[in-house]
Amino acid sequence: RLVGRGGRQWRALSRPVAAGGAAAAGTLWVFSPDTAARTQLGLVRRRVVTVALLAAPLGAAVGWGIATGTTRPLRRLQRATHGLDPRAGAGCFHHTPTGTSEVDDLAATVRTVLARYDEQAAHTARALDTARSFSSAASHEMRTPLMSMGTNLDILRDHPGLPAGERADVLGEVGAEHARLCTLLDELRALGRADLVEADAFRDTDLTQIAGAAVAEARRRSPDAAVRLRVEPDARPGADAVHGWEPGLRLLLDNLLANALTHGRGAGNAPDVEVAVRRDGADLVLTVDDRGPGIPARARREAFARFWRGPASEGSGLGLTLVAQQAALHHGSVEAGDR
Fold first, then answer.
1. Which residues have CB under 8 Å from 228's CB, separation 6+?
2. Which of 93, 188, 223, 308 has the most CB atoms within 10 Å of its CB?
3. Cβ contacts of residue 232 below 8 Å, gap of 6+?
4. Cα separation, 271 vs 257, whole angstroms
């Protein structure tokens, strides 16, 4: 405890003492000037201030060095992404693994974003190409039937007294050109739709069931034709599925059958068409046979080009183009044989 007198203070410590016996007892007092404690306290304060003044700059320098080394990979990534043009794609982004998982994960995220941008840009480019192709093809192919329809309508307007037979012929031509225009627009729309089909539209599909439905529809539309379906045992329904786009496969079959029913007539006979599905290793082979004259050998390759028509054809020239497009879309091929 502290005791004081005359402005001075001492620290006092008392202890009871005994000497010899219980009768000889007393209290031992020890006094120490308080100035020594104050001196020690001042010394401690000076040392604390000195250590703080030295340690603060040194700690700041060490912390700055550690922070600089830690953030160096992040700054390098920032320099790599600064001014990055997304139109250049993921190929313009280069990142060397740093060993820092957070930075490497961030770089992988940037690369994924750029790759998805590439996909969307490619999809947009395909859509624009499809739109341009559709516009060009439509304007080119629709000009002739529209001019023909305009001429026939002028005839009907300028000659109100046209004989009934001639008037019926002109109206028949107008109706035929109108039907041709409708068919052309439908086929151009189908071409554009297939150009933009997404991967998630593909799923496991039974080709034999699609072939059966197409054959049934062909029989309904052409009751005078003989249309048969032959499926070999190793390609029966359920044996294997095709990973494909069902509307596209049906479009392929419908166009092959329409072509066969139109051009597959023999010498004045009713159309005789056979659709066959068989397996060839890992592939399925679809064959459409008819009894018509077939396509000349020199023209079989170009028969699948857009707007190609044979000498006697009255179609749009897009039916076999749709077939070739769908075959390519399903990683297959198509060819014309002798019939």
1. 215, 273, 274, 275
2. 188
3. 276, 277, 278, 279
4. 10
Under a CB-based contact definition with an 8 Å cutoff, are residues 57 and 64 in contact? no
Going by the DSSP 8-state scheme, the letter that residue 270 receives in this structure is P
SS3 assignment, position 147:
helix
CB contact burial 70-97 (16+ within 10 A = b; e otherwise): eeebeeebeebeeeeeeeeebeebebee
- Yes or no: say if 31 and 12 are a contact pair by the CB < 8 Å rule: yes
CA 218 to chain CA mean position, Å: 35
| Alpha-carbon span 149 to 156, nearest angstrom | 11
11-55: pLDDT as tens digits: 788 888 876 666 667 888 887 777 666 677 778 888 888 888 888
Partners of residue 8 on adjacent β-strands: 5
Strands 226-231 and 272-280: parallel
- Nearest alpha carbon to residue 275 among 10, 264, 267: 264
147 within 8 A of 108, measured Cβ to Cβ: no
Beta strands in the chain (DSSP E): 2-5, 8-18, 25-33, 203-205, 226-231, 242-244, 272-280, 283-289
Tokens of 310: 């044979």
- DSSP string of 77-100, one letter each residue: HHHHHTT--GGG-GGG------S-
Please report the pLDDT score of residue 288 as a whole number. Answer: 92
Q: How far apart are the first and last CA of the chain?
A: 123
* Over residues 211-225, mean pLDDT: 89
User: How is residue 122 written in tokens?
Assistant: 């490619």
CA distances from 61 to 26, 45, 51, 140 (A): 62, 25, 15, 75
C-alpha span between 11 and 144 (Å, rounded):
122
d(CA 166, CA 228): 41
Q: Is 65 exposed, middle or buried (0-12, 13-18, 19+ CB in 10 A)?
A: exposed
